[in-house]
Design brief:
The chain is mostly helical and 195 residues long. 71% of the residues lie in helices and 0% in strands.
Length: 195
């Protein structure tokens, strides 16, 4: 990639990053907005990323690299349930921090969360942890079910929940699947309150 093209790509992704962080709705941000914020022509965006979805995927991949670094650097030792809980907790944090961007991707017609590279990575990790905890029977499905608990539309629906409530719910679910223990005392749950 030429130096000017690399600079433009960096500027576009930085501008898109700022705009998505500031937005409350993914439809508020157009390619025109991103081009203007990056100081490039709209044609540059289309040449570099193809379309809006291509740009969203590139931005998501860049943020995903940061999440991958966190997961690798801070991966806990211990039983499979604790390692799975760490993964799910970080995915929720990532999706809360990238709320509008992940909604934009998951709401797009061809942006299914099941087709992203990060979803596949997380699924593979969870299949291994479920298999380690309870054997291979249904491990593939149970890994998908755990990831359903951290979908962006659910994270959005529960956006006002404090971290402690998220933690209690994720802990209860993860331990129920991997340890077979979903009691409030084991999970640190905050009672039977439902949303």
């Amino acid at each position: 990639m030429r130096a000017d093209a690399a600079r433009n790509r960096t500027a576009v992704l930085a501008a898109a990053d700022r705009l998505f962080d500031a937005a409350t709705d993914p439809d508020q941000i157009s390619m025109d907005d991103i081009a203007a914020a990056a100081g490039v022509g709209k044609g540059t965006l289309f040449r570099r990323f193809g379309d809006r979805m291509g740009l969203l995927r590139a931005l998501y991949a860049q943020r995903g690299d940061r999440l991958r670094a966190v997961l690798t650097a801070a991966a806990p030792a211990g039983p499979p349930a604790e390692r799975a809980l760490h993964l799910l907790r970080e995915v929720v944090r990532f999706k809360r921090d990238s709320r509008v961007l992940t909604l934009a991707l998951e709401n797009a017609g061809d942006g299914s969360p099941y087709r992203t590279g990060s979803y596949e990575e997380w699924h593979v990790l969870l299949v291994a942890l479920v298999t380690e905890a309870r054997g291979p029977a249904s491990a593939d499905y149970l890994a998908h079910a755990l990831l359903a608990a951290v979908r962006s539309d659910l994270v959005e629906h529960l956006r006002d929940w404090p971290d402690e409530r998220w933690e209690a719910g994720l802990a209860a679910l993860t331990r129920a699947v991997l340890d077979g223990d979903a009691s409030p005392a084991a999970a640190g749950a905050d009672g039977p309150t439902r949303h």
